[in-house]
Structure formats: structure tokens, C-alpha cells
Design brief:
heterodimer; A: mainly alpha; two-stranded antiparallel ribbon; 5 strands; B: about 290 residues; alpha+beta; Alpha-Beta Plaits; 2 domains
């Protein structure tokens, strides 16, 4: 919370200064954001809580107990906000006013479903019939995912997102029937996330190559027979 | 030769053998059954084994002898609707449990059957690799079912195999005489015999072992799955559970109502292989779809 109030508090006077000077300040300000975004774990708190506050809190508590290995996205292009800069109110209003300097560096997110041609072309989106990035990814803070309630969740808790539609699988996953676990049957264990096994963009499980079959038994000494082969 | 002379001769031969430096072998030969050994005797036996393995493999072994954990009964679940028959579990088991590479010994056997069939006589476990799952077939890994009423234990003439308090059926390899009655008695083809001296490459050896589990075996003894006794008695998952890429394998304490296996039995359709034989396996196959 304090983070947000300071940001808003700082921007109000700034927005009254000349737009050009403000743009320069903001440009340097945004340069620091990617690192700030990574260290913020309480990002979910910035968001207005969903309709049923109490219910949301209880699910959050429940989800605390699953320890998961780092999500695969952290090995890839993360943090997403290195490119998708966080959209703060001051900036979007400047963009609406048509500030060209800012427009060069910060693109306004386009919420219209379309086929991506410039970036992320390697993503093959085959998940449900009606699919679009912003169904799951948060529009303003791309380092987070977004539940249908509007709550932002980090990638470590992506199972809550998947569980919105796949309820019975989510139920099984929570008690350990669905999915993989490694570590200890008694004591600390790691729950693999849905996205460790299923590609969230095309979740159908791919075929795997099978290992070699066992050698059929044969008469005689194994070493002699092998020599003949 | 009269009786007195025979005894004298035998005694002197034994003494000569001991003096000739074979006393380790003699001691091993005269060693007690695992459950009858005192703690000192067991430690001696483990030291002997460590020395022997050091010579053979050039690695320092850890040979544990952890007893069963209290209030624990191990049980296993296998999700047939998830298994794709990739045999990752088979090779994880071979690696973890020091199974012979030449001749080949594998404790897990993955059988493939046509959809709708449950006829093990018609099953194929030599199916070729390639991309799996194959349409029209399903696969079913079979390993030791750790029966509550194990026929293999009943038939053993030397009591070299028995059931531990946590439900694992184990073998004392030093007491096994290699008669293979247990192999004939087991309805799940879960036991393997070392027909010749097992060979394991030195770099593939797993030095973390248990006396009743994955310590390297010798020619002429029977071996079997022990639910990775060296791992599970320390609280870890068995190797096959961690290796399964589709998460079809579940493991836990059936006496704990919150364990994964208890939840499987509570919420899914389960069956036990050949349950009509009253072997009461602790290995549950289930369907999650």
C-alpha cells in the first residue's frame, strides 16, 4: 500500500509541469521499475479486493501451504515487465493526450484479441475455444497473472488460475492425486505446478519417447549369447 | 576314518582356512540371520560388506539398517488412466537399486494390453520404444505388490524373506539359498534371480544403500522391489514416484488419513491385481478419470 500512495502522491504535482519535462523524469523513473517489480511480492495487495473479500482471503491462506519449485517462466523471458512496462495512471493519461516521446518507449496495451505477428510468435495458443493472452495475464502488470475476480497472483500461484476452470483436477492436485510431487512422503515436498508438465498455451500432454524394452530371455550363458550377436 | 579323526580333520581344515586369510568369508558364511543378529554383529557384517564393496567398486558405501518407522504401513497407488508406458520408472529403479545391467535385471515390468482387455496372458512387455502412448492400448506397470498375505514368504524354506512391520517384504541375501520357490509362488512375477554374477558399471553404482534393499547382490540370490527401503525409511519418496513424468505414481502411509494414498483409496475407483488370490496387495491401481 505505501508504495502505491507515494507513487500517486508524486505524480499529481508532476502532471501539472510541462509534459516534456515530466516525460524525461518518468522515463528515468521507469528504467528502475523492472528490478522493483521483481522484488515486490505483495503485488496482489495493490489491487482492489474481489467482491467477496473474505472468501478471497481464505483461498489465499489455503494456497499458502503448497511449496512449489520456481515456475518455468522464470527461466525464460521473465520479468515480463522488462518490456511490458507497468502502466501507471499518469502515463496512460499522457498517452491518451498523444505524448509522442513517451509513445516511442511505452506502448499502450491493446486489449483487442488478435493474432500476434511481431512478438511471441513461438506461442501456439491452443487452449479452450475462446483464448486470448489477457484472459490469464494481467494487462497492467505483466509479471502477474489475473484471476477472473480481478485478483493479481504471482506465477508461483498459477494453480489458482488453472483451478478456476479445472476444478476437479485442482481438487485432486491439492490432495496429491493429480500431478507430480518430489521430495519426502513424510516432511517437505515440492508440488510441481500445472505449467511444469502442461504447456499452459497448449496444454494437451505431448507424446514421449519410450525407453528401451527389456531384453528377452534366452537359453545359455548371457555373455556367450551376446558375443554371438 | 573314525568319527574322532573326522572332527579333528574338519576343525583343523577350518582353522587352516581362517589362518589362510579367508576368515572374512568364513565369518560371512557363519553370519546369523538379519533378525537374529545383535547390533554388534550387524555392525560387523556391515563393515565386512563395506570393505568388500570398496574392493569391488572402489566407492565408499553407506549401508543403512534403519528399522521400520512406528505407526507406518506403506502403500502405493498407480493411476492407470495417466500411465503412458514410457518406462522411465523402470530405469530409475535400475539406477537407484543397483540392479544388474548384464545380465539385465529389472524389478518393474510394464505390460501393454489392448483397450478393454484385462488378460495378462495376452499382454506384451517387450513392446518397442517409439512415441507413447499408442492409440488403442494401455499400459500397466507391475512390480512387487507388497502383499499383506505374501505367498513368497510362506514358501521360503530358510526364512530368508519376510515381511517387515511397515509392510515391506524384504530378502536377507545372505540367507537366500536360491531355490526360487518364492518366484514360483509369486502371482505377480515380481521377483528376479541372479543366474550369474551381476555386473554394474562402477560409475553407475549407487552407494546409498540399505542392508535389506539395494546393496549389491551376488550370484544365486533372489531380489525384488522394496519400495526403495533405503529412501522411504528416511521419509523420501521412492525413485519411481519421482521419476514418473505424468505423475501416475502415488506413495504414502496408509495409516495416515491425510496421506496421498489414503485420499486415492477414499476418492477414486481402485482395484488390486488378482485380488481373488487373497494375497491382499498394498499396491492399488486406480483410475482418476
Amino acid at each position: 500500500m505505501p508504495n502505491l500512495t507515494t507513487e500517486i502522491g508524486r505524480q499529481r504535482p508532476i502532471s501539472k509541469i510541462y509534459p516534456y519535462g515530466m516525460a524525461v523524469i518518468l522515463f528515468f523513473f521507469f528504467l528502475c521499475i523492472p528490478t522493483a517489480g521483481m522484488s515486490e511480492t505483495e503485488g496482489a495487495e495493490h489491487v482492489p479486493l474481489p467482491i467477496d473479500e473474505q472468501a478471497a482471503k481464505s483461498t489465499d491462506k489455503e494456497s499458502e501451504q503448497y511449496s512449489v519449485p520456481p515456475p518455468l517462466v522464470y527461466q525464460g523471458l521473465f520479468p515480463c515487465q522488462a518490456c511490458h512496462r507497468r502502466d501507471v495512471r499518469g502515463v496512460s493519461s499522457q498517452l491518451e493526450k498523444g505524448n509522442e516521446f513517451l509513445g516511442k518507449y511505452i506502448r499502450k496495451p491493446d486489449p483487442k484479441p488478435r493474432i500476434l505477428v511481431k512478438m511471441h510468435r513461438n506461442i501456439n495458443l491452443r487452449h479452450a475455444e475462446w483464448h486470448w493472452c489477457l484472459n490469464c495475464h494481467d494487462q497492467d502488470e505483466r509479471n502477474y497473472l489475473r484471476l477472473i475476480t480481478g485478483e493479481k497472483i504471482p506465477f508461483e500461484k498459477s494453480y489458482r488460475l488453472c483451478g478456476q476452470c479445472h476444478g476437479s483436477i485442482y481438487r485432486d492436485w491439492k490432495i496429491g492425486i493429480h500431478g507430480r510431487r518430489v521430495g519426502n512422503w513424510k516432511g517437505k515436498k515440492l508440488y510441481l505446478l500445472c505449467s511444469h508438465c502442461h504447456d499452459p498455451h497448449s496444454p494437451k500432454f505431448r507424446k514421449l519417447p519410450a525407453e528401451d524394452p527389456p531384453r528377452p530371455p534366452h537359453y545359455g550363458r548371457w555373455d556367450v549369447v551376446e558375443h554371438e550377436e | 576314518m573314525d568319527r574322532r579323526n573326522f572332527i579333528k580333520g574338519a576343525a583343523s581344515t577350518l582353522a587352516a582356512l581362517a589362518l589362510a586369510g579367508c576368515n572374512e568369508q568364513v565369518e560371512e558364511y557363519l553370519q546369523q540371520h538379519f533378525v537374529e543378529m545383535s547390533k554388534e554383529e550387524l555392525d560387523e557384517a556391515r563393515e565386512r560388506l563395506k570393505k568388500k564393496y570398496r574392493q569391488k567398486f572402489g566407492v565408499d558405501f553407506k549401508i543403512g539398517a534403519e528399522p521400520a518407522l512406528p505407526e507406518v504401513l506403506f502403500s502405493y497407488g498407480l493411476d492407470l488412466s495417466r500411465c503412458i508406458g514410457c518406462r522411465r520408472c523402470v530405469y530409475a529403479c535400475v539406477q537407484e537399486n543397483n540392479q544388474s545391467r548384464k545380465p539385465q535385471i529389472q524389478w518393474i515390468r510394464v505390460v501393454r494390453m489392448e483397450n478393454g482387455s484385462m488378460d495378462l496372458e495376452e499382454s506384451d512387455h517387450y513392446y518397442e520404444g517409439g512415441m507413447v502412448p499408442k492409440e488403442g492400448y494401455y499400459t500397466m506397470p507391475i512390480q512387487c505388490q507388497q502383499c499383506e498375505n505374501p505367498p513368497c514368504v510362506k514358501v521360503c524354506p530358510t526364512k530368508a524373506t519376510w515381511q517387515e512391520p511397515d509392510g515391506i517384504v524384504v530378502v536377507d541375501y545372505n540367507w537366500c539359498i536360491g531355490c526360487r520357490y518364492c518366484m514360483a509362488a509369486c502371482p505377480y512375477w515380481a521377483r528376479r534371480f541372479n543366474f550369474s554374477e551381476p555386473h554394474i558399471p562402477k560409475e553407475e553404482i549407487n552407494p546409498n544403500t540399505h542392508y535389506l534393499g539395494n546393496r549389491p547382490r551376488m550370484r544365486g540370490v533372489v531380489e525384488k522391489c522394496t519400495f526403495c527401503i533405503q529412501r522411504t525409511r528416511k521419509g523420501r519418496y521412492p525413485a519411481c514416484v519421482e521419476a514418473c513424468p505424468v505423475g501416475a505414481r502415488k506413495f504414502g502411509n496408509i495409516l495416515d488419513p491425510d496421506s496421498e494414498i489414503s485420499k486415492v483409496i477414499e476418492t477414486k475407483r481402485v482395484f488390486r491385481l488378482k485380488s481373488e488370490l487373497n494375497t491382499q496387495p498394498k499396491f492399488y491401481y486406480f483410475f482418476s478419470i
